[in-house]
Design brief:
This protein has about 130 residues and is an alpha+beta fold. It has one domain: Roll (Thiol Ester Dehydrase, Chain A), CATH 3.10.129. Helix content is about 15%, strand content about 40%. The chain is built from 1 helix and 5 strands, in the order βαββββ. Strands 1-3-4-5-2 form a 5-stranded antiparallel beta sheet, covered by helices on one side. It starts with 13 loop residues before the first strand and ends in an 11-residue tail after the last strand.
Length: about 130
């Protein structure tokens, strides 16, 4: 992804609306809610890529660029950054559009690492 808004052909991997229940004490959308949306989107991409269960093992290079407001359309775009024997890293960008349909703005980005799991919940090598 670049500093410009992703194209419609690239996804998003998750799209939702920020609601009042998701706010922090300052009235902006809680950062933890944003991270959970990113994890849902990245975990979906990772599960599709590994064709099985995955677990989040780390979040790196997380940056909050600006707040999200109630009513904003929140979209998570994912790209595969690295693919290893048991794990993969997914770069996730969060873009918002306000309720009036204004220009999209990038608000958050990070790299999430997921590990492929076997039926007993242990890391498994992928072929």
């Amino acid at each position: 992804m670049t500093a410009t808004s992703p194209s419609a052909s690239e996804g998003p991997h998750l799209r939702t609306i920020a609601m009042p229940r998701d706010t922090n004490a300052a009235g902006a959308i809680f950062g933890g809610w944003t991270v959970s949306q990113m994890d849902l989107a990245g975990g979906t991409l990772a599960a599709q890529r590994t064709k099985g269960r995955v677990a989040t093992v780390s979040i790196d290079a997380m940056r909050f660029l600006r707040p999200i407001s109630v009513g904003d359309e929140v979209s998570c775009y994912c790209t595969l950054q690295a693919d290893g024997e048991t794990s993969l890293s997914v770069r996730i960008e969060v873009w918002i559009r306000d309720r009036t349909g204004g220009d999209p703005q990038k608000v958050t980005e990070g790299v999430f690492t997921y590990v492929a799991l076997d039926d007993e919940g242990k890391p498994q090598h992928r072929t």
